[in-house]
Amino acid sequence: MFRLHAEYDTAGDQQQAIDQLVEQLEAGQERCVLLGVTGSGKTFAMAKVIERLQLPTLILSHNKTLARQLWQEMGELFPENAVEYFVSYYDYYQPEAYIPGRDLYIDKELQMNERIEQERFSTVASLVSRPDIITVGTVSIIYGLNPPEVFQQSHLRLAVGDQADPQDVVRQLVGLQYRRTTGEITRGDIRLRGEVLDVWMPSRDDPLRIRFGWDGIERIQVCEAVSWEPLDDFEEAWIHPREFYMTSQERFNQALEDIEAELDDRLDWFHSRDKDLEAHRLEQRTKFDLEMLTEVGSCKGVENYSMHFDGRSRGERSYCLLDFYAICAEQYHGGADKYLVIMDESHVSLPQVGGMHGGDFSRKKNLVDHGFRLPSAYDNRPLRIDEFQELVPQMMYVSATPGERELRHLAEVTGQNVPEGLLHVQGGGGARAAEQDKPRERVTMESILSELDGIARMEVRPTGLLDPGIEVRATAGQVQDLEDEIRKRVEVNERVLVTVMTIKFAEEVAEYLNRQGFKAHHLHSEINTLERTEIIKALRLGHIDIIVGINLLREGLDIPEVSLVVIFDADKEGFLRNERSLLQTIGRASRNEHGSVILYADSVSPAMEAAISQTLARRRMQGEYNKEHGIVPQTIRKALPVMGEEVGDLLSGAAGKGRRGGRRLVAKPPGKRGLEGLAQKFGLGAGVWNTSDSVLDNVSQPEWVAAAYETVSSEDEGDSARLIAKLEKEMRQAAARLDFERAAQLRDRIFQLESASN
């Protein structure tokens, strides 16, 4: 069923760790921990565990960028299986909120596109229809979905040979919310022409064509979306609903009555407390929603009434993706608990899961207390951490620096004594209260690890790369010292990461370095996700040489070209400079054979001491392994990216690779609506990219790169000002027609000419 495809096999201590994990999971151990240092091949180890266990698997990441990276890697390793990408709307929206102190209401701002909807549909459809599914998603999977039973029951199965009338099939599909059309067909449409029925499910890249004859259904084919050439024949088709959320007419009508009854009760409550303003506000908003629901079947913020539509009791959790995994496991693997959850970067992901419910409740309370929402809005919520841990049958925590909650959880499920240094940590993976309010004494992560058995470790890199060398330098003259170090790296075509404490300082350092003639850029949480991806690509390609950031330079940022990591204020202990944060940041330099780290500090904090000690110990371990096996460390070779490819994929609807390795189209190319500001977003702040012609000479780029230069005639070359004006005009024209790749290249050419003239 699950079959891994790779040109390489396990190496170093990978096999030992994989065997240990498989043995634990097959024995029924509920929680396992994999400690894998940066560059040890954690993703490959995950894949090997999945292949060995042959169980449907959900892989969680703490952000959508890393989730997408994991999805692409898993898709390449399992080309024959269903590898899905589940990123919910909750990753792309600003929820509604009310700030009482300022009397400020913030309306919901939801950003979603057809690609996200398609990926969600595809995931759910795979879970209820096939046994071999791997889903990579964010922690938004703990938000509510329709009950799996509704999705299973609201479908249509057709098979070759069925005695079915085309008109009856059409009526059933209309009941599943499909739109009937006689012209062009898009996702969610059906079209009947004579004895041929075309159906395009929202989860598919290609439509179905069903041919009827005297004896019923004669043929079921998958067709190419444009030419309608048949691609494959099927004996059976499983057609899911057009809409993600479905409910019966009876349940819908009952929900409207329940909402009205709740509104009456809440109005009485407000009036009894002389809160007439809140009562009036609630009455107006809720009655408007009821009118919309009655007339068109939906309304803005309909998810806040999900309790009534699902028929749940007050306080009862909503269904989520984990329930679909239980259905898949029960249907295909002999039990609802026969699936695996892998939590990547668990030291970040687990606290994130635990904190989502509290944040959601706090926001909802202001809305409910001030008449913006009914109390039933509380039940449109993510899972609590205890509900999450109870639902997950088996989970593998994966991190280079396992968190305290994961380590305590491992001790609990394996019957070990909880180490003294973990008694202040919540039990049950964050689900139970701790015995102590705070730790009695400082304990390093390494000392806790030494007290626990059963941790699978991967601390030897198959590449032979050593952990980076570390220097501690005084803060006096640190910026000037940094300049000298950057010059050394730039001369040999290597890159630099600089991590600081604040957004403002990151921007100031990047701007200063640019003024000094370097190619630098800042990276922090206020930068759009697409821009972050492009900035990292620009660093790899050499368009920029330095990124200055905060904590975004930690987990999952694998850039082999980076040979120097610089940490300012290394001795200022806190979240950004604790032992785990320092180890994660240091690890960014471990993919280059010349990797080194500079810690600017005026003292050595306990966190620095612990991080340095572990790094040096692992460096010695790797050195001994290399000597024993005759390994010469070499920088990881990783294919260079193409600027704008991710953005282009998003806008065109292409979502990664299909089964044959080509791009998979999942949405129509968008028009201009909603995209007006994207051209401006490509002006990435402080950075000036590609001020050297030599960079592009050594980088493989798409054909359109040359097109930016072909428009310049030889006679223009002698007049720099006229040439720049011409290029600026063409750049604006390219941006206006949403040709961002060409606009970006023209912009870079303008920067080159301006730099040369100065």
Spell out the blueprint of helices and strands.
Blueprint: H1 14-26, E1 31-36, H2 42-53, E2 57-61, H3 64-77, E3 82-86, E4 93-94, E5 97-99, E6 104-106, E7 109-110, H4 114-129, E8 133-138, H5 148-153, E9 156-159, H6 166-175, E10 179-180, E11 189-193, E12 196-199, E13 208-213, E14 216-223, E15 230-234, E16 236-239, H7 249-272, H8 276-296, H9 306-310, H10 321-333, E17 340-344, H11 346-369, H12 385-391, E18 395-399, H13 404-413, H14 445-450, E19 456-458, E20 469-473, H15 478-491, E21 495-499, H16 503-515, E22 520-523, H17 529-541, E23 546-549, E24 562-567, H18 579-586, E25 596-600, H19 606-629, H20 645-652, E26 654-657, E27 663-665, H21 678-681, H22 693-697, H23 704-710, H24 720-736, H25 740-757
Parallel strand pairs: 1-18, 1-19, 2-8, 2-17, 3-8, 10-11, 17-18, 20-25, 21-23, 21-24, 22-23, 24-25
Antiparallel strand pairs: 4-7, 5-6, 9-16, 11-12, 12-13, 13-14, 14-15, 26-27
Helix pairs in contact: 1-2, 4-10, 7-8, 18-19, 23-25, 24-25
The outline comes out as globular
| CATH superfamily grouping of the largest domain | P-loop containing nucleotide triphosphate hydrolases
The name of the CATH architecture of the largest domain is 3-Layer(aba) Sandwich
Q: How is the largest sheet built, in terms of strand order?
A: 3-8-2-17-18-1-19
Q: Distance between the terminal alpha carbons, to the nearest Å?
A: 63 Å
Main beta-sheet strand count, sense and barrel state: 7 strands, parallel
